[in-house]
Every structure is written in C-alpha cells, then in structure tokens.
Amino acid sequence: MRNRATKVLLAVVCLAICLSGCAKSGPKVPVVSVSDILGIGSVGMINRYAGIVEAGETVKVNKDANLQIAEIAVEAGDAVSKGQVLFSYETESLSIEVERMQLEIEQMNNTITTQKSQITTLEKDQKAADDANKLQYTLQIQQIQLDIKETEYKIASKQKEIDQAKAKLADANVLSPVTGHIKEVNANGETNPQTGEPLPFISITQEGDFRVRGTVNEMNASNFATDMPVIIRSRTDDSLMWTGTVASVDWENPVQSNNMMMYGGPQDEMTTSSKYPFYVRLNSDDGLMLGQHVFIEPEQGQMAGQEEGDGFYLPSYYINDLDSDPWVWAVNGKDKLEKRPLVLGNYNMDSDSYEIMEGLSLEDFIAYPDENCREGAPVRYPGEPDDSEQTEPENPEEGFDEGFSEEGVGETQDFGEGEGFEMPVDDVPGSVIAEGPDGTIDSGTSETDPGVAAVQGTEAVG
Fold first, then answer.
1. Dist. CA 372–CA 332, nearest whole Å
2. Contact criterion met (CB below 8 Å) for 114 and 93
3. How far apart (Å, rounded) are the C-alpha atoms in residues 260 and 270?
4. pTM value > 0.70
5. Cα–Cα distance between 458 and 437 in angstroms, integer?
6. Contact partners, residue 205, CB within 8 Å, separation at least 6
7. How far is CA 210 from CA 179, 213, 243, in A?
8. What letter does residue 320 receive in the DSSP assignment?
9. Which pLDDT band holds residue 158 (cuts at 50, 70, 90)?
10. What Rg value do the Cα atoms of the chain yield, rounded?
11. By CB atoms within 10 Å of each CB, which of 155, 356, 386, 420 scores lowest?
C-alpha cells in the first residue's frame, strides 16, 4: 500500500510541475525592432533599392555627321577642364564648300540682274505695242518677276548655309562644356548593344556635386516618378541618411536584360524582366564618398519630423489606448513583454503614424497587439524558430516514462494503467502514508523531515 501511494504522490508532483511550467511560459509572442518597422533596419516595410554614389551628371558631346574629324585630343580617363579642346574638325574641305556656295550666290545675283534688265526692256516694248499685244507682254513680265522671287529665296537659303559653315570654321575646335573626366570616346561610331542606338561621340563625367545611381526592375516601375522624394541610407550605419529627388529614369537604356525564369515557371515574354537605371538628385552630399554603396527608398512619411531633430513616427496600429494613456507591448530587459507607456507628439495623416517623443527608441523591440500579448509573456525575435508549430504527442500520458529511470530509483513502468514508476518507500525520508476512510491517500511529513509537501487527491495543499 505504501509503495503504491508513493507512486501516485510522485506522479502527481511531476504532473503539477509540468503543468505549472507550461502555464508560466505559454506561446512566444513574435516581436520586431522599431528600426525594422520604420524601414531603417535590414527588413523594412518600405522597398529598398541598391545604389552607388557617383559624380555629377554625364555630359554627352556629339559630332557633326556632315564633317570630318581632323584630330581627337582626349582619351577615356583623361581629366578635362571647361573650355578645353576635345576634338577638331577637318576645315580645308569646309572652306572649299563655303567658297563654292558663295560662287553660287554670286551667279544667282547675276541672274537676277539680267532678269531685271529683261523686265525693263519688256515694259518699254509694251508701251509701244498695240492693245492686242499688251496682254502678252504683261504675262512675260509677271513670269520673270516670279523667277526673280524664287531666285532670291534660294539666295537666302544658301546664305544661311554659308553662315553655318563659317560658324563651324570658327568653332573647328570643339570645347568641353564642363570640368570632369572623359568617360568614353566612341571614335568608330559604336552603338548601344541593347537598343542599337548610336552612342555619344564623347561622354564626360562632370565633377562637383554627387548623385546616386540605382536600378529599378520594370515590375516596380510604377514606384518611381520624376521629382519623387527619396531617402538615401548608409549600408553600414542606419543613422546616416540623406534626402533627394528622382532626377530621371533611363527607360531607353536597360542595364540588364534578364532572361532568368521567374517564379519557377516556364519562361515566356511575361516572365522576363529588365532593369533600368535611375538617378537621384541630392539635396546635400555632405559625408558621402564617390563610389559609396547605399540604399535608396521612396520617402513615404517615415522622415516626418526627423529633419528637425524630433522623434520618429510609429504606425498607429502598434499603439494601444490612443485616446487615454498610450502604450505599446515592448520587450523588457528579461526578454518578456511589458506595457510600455508612451509620450506622443504630432500625428501624420498620410502615414497614419504618431510621433514618439518618449518611451521607445529605434533599438527597442515591440509586438503587434493581439490575444497572445500579456505581461511577462516570452518573446520570439526575428529569425528564431516558432516553437508553437512543434507537434504535441497524441497521447498526453506518453513521455512520462522517459527520463525517470535512474539507478537505485526503481523500474520505469507505463503510467497509463494506474502504475507509476517504482521508488522504494525508504528513499522518501520522513514520509507517512495513510489511507483515509473515503479512499483518499494522505501523505504527511514526519517530524524529522517537515519539508515534504502534503498532497491530497490530485491538488497540492502545501
């Protein structure tokens, strides 16, 4: 009898401990850092695009297709100053062309002089003619006058060509419009391999202010528009950021034609994608370095108030009791949830977010308020496995027979048939076992060992 009572006692104590531990821990509540929520961390709510800091805009200098190049004075990589000679046209043939056109104008002027003399002669003959022949003279005079007007128009057009040619002779040396570095020289008329369009004769990377170049997939094309505000963030320090606007998206020159299959399906024209460069005009480039890699993200209210040094803005759906004493579920120093009071500032209607003046920092972790949130609940950080998805054994009694077999303790048996694990009664010091008149088993303590708990039925009494 004493042996069976000991088995029941120990089994009940173990069950109570297990149930107590489970009730205390409960499911872990997923949490996320405030910086990640605001898109400042590695996983944000706003799309980010890779970018690189480069020198100012690229200036393109093209040559006149009707002229021959006499000399190219620069090569790719050369530094040039504004006003420096880039290349020169061959001028001898152009000078000969100007002389030829001037002779044509002189000949046409002589023709007009002759035609005017003809008109004078016809007018004299018309006066001496009878009335029947005067109409014929009139028609001849009008035809010559029309020819003169046509010749005068040709002279004016030819003179414009001469003026343009003389301007080219004066500008036989093509000068650099900016200070910078020669990016490329396409002396042989190379074309863009993607579009087939001719490349510029000379490209110059302008020195001075920086700009940021990124790439956008055509599937995300709707996210970008000219003059749209963006935020530039450092890849290595999230606290470093700059602002700017989209200067242009170069839809004419894709940087990559991607023929990879997407979504694991068969490839067709609907599953291919291209990337296009876009350029950001910076409001300030202080602290940026040429060639620095950065992140680019559309500005959607996450910078509201930050430029003035005020608090950051948190989406309203994380905040409880907005109308009274606002608070959030935040992680304390022991990886448990707590109610964290907040001091709110301004409200941003566009992003439905509140300015956090006190109570949270960007490094804090918070939880989305749901039924699992409670004081002291354990938390699950990003990247940690979700232990709530682990399956429980179908028979809750299974598992009690594992891990309780030790040398000198006794033989392990199934608990499902009312049999516990065996332990010699003598191994429980000071135990007193008695069977009451109603069938319950009372386990008291002896005077020599008052530390053994008294259990009646299945409820712990002490």
1. 17
2. no
3. 12
4. no
5. 17
6. 54, 55, 56, 58, 180, 181, 182, 183
7. 14, 10, 13
8. B
9. very high
10. 45
11. 386
